Queue: 3 jobs
Job 1
Amino acid sequence: MKIKNILLAGIASLMGIAYAVAAIDNSAEEVAWVVGDQPIWKSDIEETYQQMLYEKVPINGDPYCVIPEQLAIEKLYLHQAELDTIEVSETMIMQQVEQTINNYIAQLGTQEKVEQMFNKPLPAIRETLHDLISNRSRVQQVQQSLVRDVKATPSDVRRYFDKLPEDSVPFVPRTVEVQILTAAPAIPREEIENVKARLRDYADRVNRGESEFSTLAILYSEDPGSATRGGELGFAGRSTFVPEFAAVAFNLNDKNKVSKIVETEYGYHIIQLIEKRGDRVNVRHILLRPRVAEKDLTDAVIRLDSLRADLDKNNIPFEEAVTVLSQDKDTRNNRGIMVNTNMSSNNYNTARFEMSELPQEVAKEVNNLEPGQVSQAFIMKDPKTSQDIVALVKLTNRIEGHRANLSDDYQLIKGMYEQSRQAQILNDWLEKKIADTYTRIEDEWRNCEFTHKGWIKAGSK
């Protein structure tokens, strides 16, 4: 079960990073709190409040009580990070900085609009983001070190579940377990050559100065994530890209020339260098995907429907057919079992899916099956490459919606227990840290119901 972050989820500098990049000179600002030797400025609180409103983050209570306490907690974790000499990978920080900036540009349209929104030039935005992302990572590392020894035994889980109030037992939506067998029809050589010819034409037009690469990317690229930005991918390290793409992108040196055609599992690309910066590169690309012929898809459907007839007669086990025939490398060696890779799901890294978590075409077929049945062959988009493929799916299990129980939902309850233990450990650590740390809260900021006790020391003013 995935361990989720439990505290500081509401701290603005650890969530999205919007208005917080609009820095204010604090040199003559009003101090609201002091934690150790670190001030919390009134402008910090206002800035964070605006960010939370922008991101529509719920604030449980008076924001002028909730937010300064959250910022104070963050400072306690950062102080512990200093004591533990926790370091953060500079490469990781810069990758996240560039990814965040690229997201801003994608949302607002241009770099100039981003600078206008935050009222500062891009280098200053990068500097502020660098600090925010670095702090976030250091806080997370402190939390992880504090809870790393939490282990759940079956008896721990059972005791935890037995003590849960009835209204705290979660309702588990209907889930299914599915096996899949896929066939990817060969793409005709003529279609591949046609795609390559189009890419060579685009490259020649750019190299001759007749067209802008970015314009052609907007018009023709089949990568929806970058096409609207003129094919720009943003600064990234070599490991961000598939090896074939990285090998070409990182060897480009002339910004005015276009790369040779690059084949990857996603299709065929041409690439243009924008800028190199250390071990990161920013490039544009145009992606074209050759199409499978309708006749070949139809033939594949007929073949898999014929196989389905054998499966229905138990002439061949589904698992054996997957091992011999399936072309999906992610499931072929796993007897066709689909694994949930949605990291925000309670079923993450298990064979269980809520219906909404399955690919749309798979969910449609599964909805009409009973456990043990195999679907008719159908055409679907490969979730990774978006190419047309043909598939059979077998519904191996369906668990109807129900209140969680140990028999069906052990992993879910185990995760709840671990999160509860982690939250208690972090809460106890914070209570002790607060008691041992000098804090001063100015009079107009003291009249609050704080989540944690001990901020206002006995006899303090």
Job 2
Amino acid sequence: MSPSPDRRVAQFFQIDDVPPAPVSEPGQLAGCDGRLLSGDPATGQQTLLLEMPAGWSAPVGGGGGTLELLILEGSLTVDGRRLGAGGFAALPTGCGPLVVTVREAARSVAVWSPHFGPSDYYDSRPRVVRTVDLPWEPTVFPAELQAPGRLYGVWSKSLRLPDPVRGDLHGGPKGLLRIVVLVSGFVGDHRQESHPGCWEEIIWLAGDFFMPGTGRQAAGSYVGNPSHHRHGPLLTQRGCILLVHTDAPADFCFHEPPVPESLISAYMDGVSWLEDPVHGPSPEGSMAVPLGGMSPPASTG
């Protein structure tokens, strides 16, 4: 499907398929280009693939909203601290501006949230970290999924803080931002899932992944799941790394009937360990809610 930043409609595309344009918001990023991946007109929040030219420099942060940057390639300095690929910087509402200087042309996922208040996240203090230095934490899922064989093998690093996990509800009051790993051979709950209370976007950073009815994901794939949109199950043969972002605490609802085991096996047994994963549509004959369709609210089961 054609890329669209509309968070009301399910999305599936490659991030490089979005045309670049000069960044207008936040104004502190003037001189950079961005590919708009999603936006919410009600709050002004935007997610961009930010392209920063070598030598660009400006004071960033301080007021008007929270800017979060995850560097995908290239390097920059934030207040003199060098960050390369995998570096993360959060400049929250209320913090003092810090000088950002691009050393090598950099591409980053940028989340701009003008509706975040000083007390929402980060305690108004900048967070500048190398994600490689952050610990992996096991992800805790709702009690109904703690049975053997269901949703084990999910690990995450919290970028946006605080990021509480309460079993059936994940993230702070205005959403979460996490790097997530699904281990090799992971097969989630065989049912489809939805998130009634939030919108969710996922950017694939590495590895293979398949969601019946959505398609095959690889590095650079983008999926947007509106509230109540049914998607899944989650399958990976070789393992994958992804960036997950929501606009409210993430809740979980699971729907019968389960996806047939034959469809799951067809993917898991058909993946090559020797070829790079590719982005693409679902194989012919796969079943699920059509992409772009909205499932009606439904209770678990």
Job 3
Amino acid sequence: MKKLTMMLLTLALAMTGAPAPAETAPGTNIDKALALIGTFASGDAELAASLLDEGYIQHNLSYGTGRDAFTGSVEYLASAPVKTTVDNIRAFEDGDYVFMQTVYNFAGAGEQVAFDIFRFENGLIAEHWDNLAFVAQANPSGHTQTDGTTKVEDLDKTEENRELVKNFLYDVMQGNNPGKTADYFDGDVYIQHNTSIADGVSGLGSALAAMAEQGIEMIYDKTHLILAQGNFVLAASEGTFAGEPTSFYDLWRVENGKIAEHWDVMETIADESTWQNRNGKF
């Protein structure tokens, strides 16, 4: 049984482009998270079940909670006439958490960019949060939602970079000290992957000014989770966009103590009457 499980795990990892684990080791948490999302493409519900804690908690409000609900989704996708595709772009590890950026196409419904967060407990995936948005055209500076560097660097600066982003969220995104905005950037150097905003702090300022003219506000009320590995930091925040309850997932790359690059997915939080689980978005 152990060898069979290892063979299935190796197959799933190969489908996601991740390196196969050695026979003598179960793989890292990143390997396991990649294997799990790979089951959406492979349809391997048995492998999915082997990676999930029995009490698996789901925060995607479109799905039921629990291990059986997840494996049921895998089986459903396996039966769909159009094959699901999974293309992982970035994957990071922070203690018991794995956070990743992936492009999915579920049963031919259209490509979606997602940030997934998995929490591990006793070597199994115990909890999951995510944000998804459909793939859009390149932004005004020609960047897509996923391009740019994937290299993890500065592992010794992980906590320093986490603190930088924490302070940036408080001062700038939550509007407590907007006068400090320039302190977080190297002049106007800022690579932007948001679908509507151009590069540079100036591009961000212009976009916010244009929204204000239209009466559109983007408000960050609370940050629930900040995860980091080296030069990459992901924050999951709650607020409103144009008056609608919104979940903000922002990934920043930090370079030399300054915020240098940004990717994001915004998702409107569904009305509670439509939720398929009671765990909440966060």
